[in-house]
């Protein structure tokens, strides 16, 4: 059975390993020993922010999935809170077992608990499987996701 | 000359008026006197959160533009901060004067000041002019923007 909990600093190694073990992630993450300090600082900032949650999915003691949730009070849509999902990954060893869907379903429930009126994410247009996955779960690709590196 | 500053509670009326005076916004905002309480609560939550900034553009004393910036510490991209822009609007009276571009250029500079490595936004696929506007400013539509109402 899969359980979900807030990540602790001890999970960071497993999390970065999952982020790096990905077609796009492998080009931009650095899974090294020791972990680059930037990951540790980001974890600390997330952990200290009540509007950010780094969530791990566990199979027994093993960390097999991760996602980050951000809760934002927006002035638009009549001043409603919104949840944003980012960095969804599952461990290669458990792919195809529906753990990704369980992660997202968990995020949807958590967003409702937090009083959000919308949940959103962006996915790289190169990830055609991911787009179908999210559409099956009820998301609609109504928007263009625009990015600029600084 | 356009100046930019953090919005105060006194600007909320002008802000909601701009949000509602928009093809898509008119279907989902409520510009009424008094303003619905949800806008006031959202303003208070934004104002209390160091990672959210509601910014107005002013021409003299007059509020002629608005945007909300959210700064998020992400574990992805080697644990880098990211800025998200939402709810960009300019007053109908000043459209076509480049104030929208100045808002976004201001957001880009603010994101750099905050140490962000990326700036991002989503725009409704129905807003074809907006897509071209953001692409001209250097954004790339590399992602699908997926949403689900809760």
UniProtKB/TrEMBL annotation, chains A, B:
UniProt key word Acyltransferase: yes
Protein name: GNAT family N-acetyltransferase
Coiled coil region boundaries: none
Keywords from the named record: Acyltransferase, Transferase
Entry-linked Gene3D superfamilies: 3.40.630.30
Source organism, top-level taxon: Bacteria
CDD domains: NAT_SF (cd04301)
A Pfam family that the UniProt record links to this protein: Acetyltransf_1
Residue span(s) of domain N-acetyltransferase: 2-150
Presence of keyword Transferase: yes
InterPro entries: Acyl_CoA_acyltransferase, Bact_Acetyltransf, GNAT_dom
GO MF, any single term: acyltransferase activity, transferring groups other than amino-acyl groups
